[in-house]
Design brief:
By secondary structure, the chain is of the alpha+beta class. The chain has two helices and six strands, in the order βαββββαβ.
Amino acid sequence: MRYALLLMGHHDDPDCGDDGGADPEEFFAFDKEITEAGVVVTSFALEDQDQAVKVSSDADGARLTTSGPFAEVQEFVGGTYIIEVDGIDDAIAWAKRSPGSAPGGHVEIRPVAPY
């Protein structure tokens, strides 16, 4: 089965981001480990939210474009892995090994739809 590991952070957490949380070297080591295990289908990291652009609709259906950062957002996705493993227990095991699940963040696991 394929699962998405969403590496999440929280803006208000002092252990997340530049002032704390996992060291980038920990992420590089994890990336090497999970890639060498042969379970990664694809992965990517995201730039900071201040570089984001949001497209939405107003009440009349007109499209609106807004540049980040977005004050109403409390959590952010820092990156993701799509992995192929035997089941949810294996996906959980990889999430527990990720520096993204250290204090200041969490890893959300979602099954990838088969369509």
